[in-house]
Design goal:
The complex is a heterodimer of chains A (286) and B (240). Chain A is mainly α and 286 residues long. Chain A is built from 10 helices and 2 strands, in the order H-H-H-H-E-E-H-H-H-H-H-H. Chain B is α/β, with parallel strands linked by helices. The longest helix of chain B has 13 residues. The chains are: A mainly alpha (286), B alpha/beta (240). The interface between A and B is medium-sized, with 18 and 27 residues.
């Protein structure tokens, strides 16, 4: 039963990992940008959350939508003013730009928020547990799981059934040719990055709820996001969800076997999956 | 009467390489014009230049009186120029119907609706929810044309419709052009197949190595003369 509990907890934390990856998958899938500053945006969103919790006296979970909206705007402006200048056939310039951006963001966050670990004060909810089929699960991780999976489902419906979603998918396929249908692909990139970062915003806030963040937490999250995206298959949404859940389970199972292993076991699993399925879960048939 | 589209001294470049050398071209409202020429003559480049996909260009392109030479491609499509691109270019993540619906992105009012397109190409009705890359080349070509029509264009640019298709399928697709003409849309056909192009068009331009080598009405010249101009002067026997 204890093992089952570990696996279920792995799924719960894995949903958050999946959300880290979702944003990265979306930026890559539509704008073909590898955003090296992805982790910093996750952490920045966490800090924005921490700041707002101090200002607005409502429950922190209710602030998640507000942070999503704020970071959506940041993402759109970022793409339209900065990233669109360097997008093109060569994938290196956007990578270098976001790499520089990650360093700037890290230092700016140290300046503004300090380097001490901080978290969002969840009151009693943080350590509240509940009994499910004889297992003891944290209430907060279950809530985070539900929100994460809901965001996946919401994004799925948005991309599949709305005109904007259709345009984003077409832009990911053929950015040049969507222009023939009245689409400004640079603006489509802007919407994609805005959506991607708002997913990271939700992830960052919930990360700050379940554990602590510092301006330096971004690097590890970026690594997780990349592993999730690559396990799932580049640009695939559902691949990212499964990839995140696999990493979450191996992480906690690994820590149970060997408490000092850190991210070693997820990395090994990542390596094995990549060897067997170089195109990731969603691309293994091709 | 001013032409619908007019290019004067149009030159297009790929980096240091020049593909078009000063093309003067015009097409009137409702007219069908063929542009014929061999592989690499610059036909696709010409269409891409008009649609705004090639941006390295000199000279002027005027559409309905407006200079669109430097206009962004998405705005050109909103003005009413549609391109059926070479190789059809499906959006693989989208179904057949979603590909067609992309045509509505220009927000142009007009006679063409999704229902009309299905009436024009009944073969698409039963595969509307299929993946656009798992259908035949002929069906893809119908999607590409239908998608362009849904933008309700004043000018339809068609790049090598017959490429890679069986003659019977090509016939079926060409048969629909009379209906498109009837809707008042001007059509520009790029073709390697001289006979087919001359049958469909009111006028033709022959393109040779980035320059116009001959232009006029097909009936005034005959296939023999046109094909000589197609391949350049010299040996032309048995090639058409």
């Amino acid at each position: 039963m204890a093992w089952l509990e570990t696996i279920v907890n792995g799924l719960l934390v894995g949903s958050l990992y999946a959300l880290f990856g979702l944003g990265a998958a979306l930026t890559f899938g539509v704008a073909k940008i590898v955003n090296v500053a992805h982790g910093e945006f996750i952490v920045l969103s966490g800090f924005i959350g921490i700041m707002l919790v101090g200002i607005i006296p409502i429950h922190p979970l209710l602030l998640v939508p507000l942070v999503i909206v704020i970071v959506f705007a940041i993402g759109f402006i970022l793409q339209m003013t900065l990233l669109n200048r360097v997008v093109g056939k060569d994938p290196i310039p956007p990578m270098l730009l976001t790499f520089g951006l990650s360093i700037v963001l890290k230092n700016a966050m140290v300046e503004v928020f300090g380097a001490t670990p901080r978290s969002i004060n969840m009151g009693g909810l943080r350590f509240k547990g509940m009994e499910v089929f004889g297992m003891t699960l944290g209430v907060l991780p279950v809530i985070i799981f539900v929100i994460s999976v809901s965001l996946f489902v919401a994004l799925h419906f948005f991309l599949k059934y709305t005109r904007v979603g259709r345009t984003l998918r077409a832009t990911g396929d053929e950015a040049q040719f969507v222009q023939l249908f009245g689409v400004n692909y640079r603006r489509a990139f802007g919407v994609a990055t805005a959506l991607a970062l708002s997913m990271s915003a939700a992830a960052g806030m919930m990360l700050a709820m379940r554990s602590t963040i510092t301006p330096f937490t971004g690097g590890d999250r970026l690594l997780i996001a990349f592993e999730v995206v690559i396990i799932g298959g580049l640009g695939s949404m559902w691949g990212a969800l499964i990839g995140g859940l696999i990493l979450g389970v191996t992480h906690l199972v690994g820590l149970r076997i060997d408490p000092n292993s850190g991210l070693l076991y997820p990395d090994i699993v990542f390596f094995i999956i990549l060897t067997i399925m170089p195109r990731g879960i969603s691309g293994w048939r091709q | 009467m001013t032409p619908l589209l007019e290019t004067s001294d149009l030159q297009t470049f790929y980096g240091d390489f020049q593909a078009l050398f000063g093309l003067d071209f015009s097409i009137a409202e409702g007219e069908t014009v063929a542009m014929i020429g061999a592989n690499g003559a610059g036909k696709s480049t010409f269409l891409r230049s008009i649609a705004g996909l090639n941006t390295q260009k000199k000279g002027t392109i005027r559409f309905a009186g407006e200079d669109i030479t430097r206009l962004r491609a998405d705005l050109i499509s909103r003005r009413g120029i549609a391109l059926v691109p070479e190789g059809r270019v499906m959006f693989p993540s989208l179904t057949v119907e979603e590909n067609l619906l992309m045509g509505l992105g220009t927000d142009r009012a007009g006679a063409w609706t999704l229902k009309k397109v299905y009436e024009l190409f009944p073969a698409l009705t039963s595969i509307r929810h299929s993946s656009s890359v798992r259908i035949s080349g002929g069906q893809q070509q119908m999607v590409a044309i239908g998608r362009a029509l849904l933008t309700n264009p004043r000018l339809l640019l068609c790049d090598e419709i017959s490429l890679g298709l069986a003659p019977k399928i090509t016939n079926d697709i060409y048969a629909c052009f009379s209906e498109i003409k009837a809707s008042g849309t001007a059509i520009m056909l790029v073709e390697q197949d001289i006979v087919r192009a001359c049958q469909a068009a009111d006028r033709f331009y022959c393109l040779l190595e980035g320059r116009i080598s001959l232009t006029g009405r097909p009936a005034d010249f005959g296939i023999e003369v046109i094909s000589r101009s197609y391949f350049g002067t010299g040996d032309h026997h048995g090639l058409a």
